[in-house]
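assembly run, all chains below
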Amino acid sequence: MTRRTALVASPGVVPASDERILTLAVTLAVVLPLFSFFVLPLVAILSKSLATSDGIGFGNYLRIIGTRRFADLVINSVVMSGLASLITVALAFVFAYATQRCRLPGRELLTLIAMLPLFAPSLVQAQGLVLLLGRNGLLNRQFGFGIDIYGFWGVVIANVLYAFPFALLILAAALAVGDSRLYESARVMGAKPWRMFRTITLPGARYGLAAAFFVAFSLIMTDFGNAVVIGGDFNVLATEVYNQVIGQANFELGAVIGVVLLMPAILAQFVETRLSTRQVQAVSAQSRPLDIRPELVRDTAFGIVAFLIAGLILLVIGTVFFASFVRLWPYNMSFTVRHYAFDVQNGLAPLWTSIAVAFMAAILGTAMTSLAAIVVQKFPSRSTGLIVLLSLMSSAVPGMVLGLGYVLAFNNPANPLNPLYGTLVLIPILIVYYMHAQGFLITLTSLKQISNSFDEAATTLGASRLRTIMTVTMPLIWPSLVSVGVLFFMRAMVTLSAVIFIISPTTQVAAVSVLQLSDRGAVNQAAAFSVCIMAVVIGALLGLKLLLALCAVRDVRLIR
Amino acid sequence: MRAAVYNLMATGLLAGFLAASPEPAVAQAQSITVYTSYEEDEAAAFLVAAKKDLPDIDVKMLRLSTGDLAARILAESANPQHDVVWGWAVTNMIDPRILALLEPYEPKGIDKVAAQYRDAGKKWFAVTGYMAAFCVNNERLKAKNLPLPTSWEDLLDPRFKGEVVMPNPASSGTGYLQIASIIQQRGEEKGWEYLKGLDKNIAQYIKSGSRPCNVASAGEFAVGASFALRAIKNIAEGFPITMVIPKEGAGNELEANALVAASKKKDAARRFLDWTLSPGAVNAYYDWKEIVTVAGGRMPERFVKAGLPADISSAMFKMDFARAGSERTQIIDRWKKDIER
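ok done. output:
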């Protein structure tokens, strides 16, 4: 990013020192909150990893890292996450290609279905898989298949389902834009579709593919919910953190593994830097938007695959939906609505709290992550690399680790932000910094696809960088900002492992209610509560669509 | 138009933050925060009773599972946010890091609690507890043509291979109390020998204490080693399961109450702790818990119907809680080395 082409010298409308002050100001606006709400909590918990009975040192690391079990856990984690991420990215790419580059009926519906896994706590989806594929699940019960879902493959399937929407968001953003002139020239020169795909589409989506893989890998590597429900005795690093921290109140060893889990993110940072320098800008000043013409064979082939994927997702979510209306799964399948009379503490109140949290997270999250992406892309400075690293690292931090870090950091009276502790505001902040990488990558991916020539033209014409951003960049990327807001809204409704440590008696959230219900074996009620959460998210999406329509804005896909 | 939208967004954000900021101090100063690990529905019922008997105290309750609560209390230890710990596993309570946060207090009526159910140092007292039990799925038992197991010993039968699930003691308190009771019953050597034999039949070590019963109730496995109350509640829900109290004597755990040393509202906190021994509380406990350490109530009908013996003490193994607490790290380390997969 620091190797970008030098900007054309400003003709002096804006003095250079003002530009420098602006750069400093926006950089600080990104870096300060990142330090307060991400680095500080992380340092608070990671410093625990160095605390041993005989002072500060690497004793905890030595105790763990040499062991046979640790080696097994690393291999399990890496192999499972790698395989699940590859499958996720491959499926998401095909799906994104189908919705963005083919002429298909019901594209909006397809995308909505693909996003459904984001709308419910992952706990419930894993539960849905068990209801469907478990030893006493629907398939085994009805058809007597000998399927045993527990173990490696169960975790892989559950995680593909979990990470698919995230990968799709990034890949759809990457494939949504393109320059139709390139394809036309290629066609005129007689290139076959496969060659065009290899030489135009793939290079254009390279950054998106890498970003999608990285996000999927980090999400899967740090998730413990799926492994706990469906993994059986298949253990990974994230479940070991859970064992150490929750099972044995051993923060020190838990923190050590937390540090190990950060490694992929740091590695990805190097890959990202290398890739982004070679990213082809898909849109330039002369670009013409893609014009996708019907093509029977391509559309049919991709259509079938996309509908198949959507069908499988729908099957799992549908099972959860179905279970919420069944008297006693799987013994008494008669219809009932009694599970919607929630007898969990405070009833539905946590759902309203979550909605407030989700709105705050959507606004804060969009502001902070897009500001970070704009600063990285448009205000290069010596701290650019640091911002990218911190922005991406969030996705490699297990929610549990970050949540406990928040307790340690903000419950400390010496911290000037201590008054935030125990208030509702801290919850959206935690969610924003927990999901920072995903929002950041969506904006960054769309920013990277806009040619520098726009900036150069604007600068030549005498516009300041701020003006260029407001009048050139923003109008081009604001649809992705909306989808970032939608992403934060959705995640805030369902995030569990991070927030469970900072909820207080007055700030209970919906995902925790689902956990409480599931803990006490009320599977049907947990499903019903999840259905309510899904209904809220879908309702919010429709509401936003209506609002945009009222503002006469069309053609913005909320979930892209 | 755009400016209007921005304004709208800014107003919304501001409103959200204002609404979310902490409520101004209520005139009624008697507000205490209580952390508990009582199961969700129990805690809710007890809280109703507490609010009825203590109308002038605003009890704010946070319910988390035993392990989550341990992590939370330790993470907050520099600046504790709670005044009272209520109904939390004794084996967690006697962790020296936790004991250091507590203040000795002898509530009114403490004489009603037998000495083995309270701390010699007066830092905690237990009014309730829970015990281990198997949840056995009748349907699956029949389909697999298996006999009803009545003891831990029965679970060694090779026919149960792949049909038994139990909690992972490294992550679940229920799991730990099960293996601690087995080791105390059989002695060090025989106990470990048994656990290794049992391991051959275990399908999964599940990371929570209630989940083994829940998956057995769902028919995923025939036998789930869990705790009695979970079994009783699942039977009441209508699941086709039988509760089995292992013949060797069920391992058990106490749920203790304590006063937090850093509390700034100790008067109200002490009154709440007094209340936990009052007839109002004890009545509520008897309604929900199989183990209540003070006299004054009767076991509800649904417990008996689910198969709990009327004289509960005969079914329980007399645990040495101090030993279970002090050996915890050592036993779990050995379990992880020898048995964990």
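Chain B touches chain A through 69 residues (CB under 8 Å).

Chain B is about 45% helix and 20% strand.

not gonna interpret more than that til we talk
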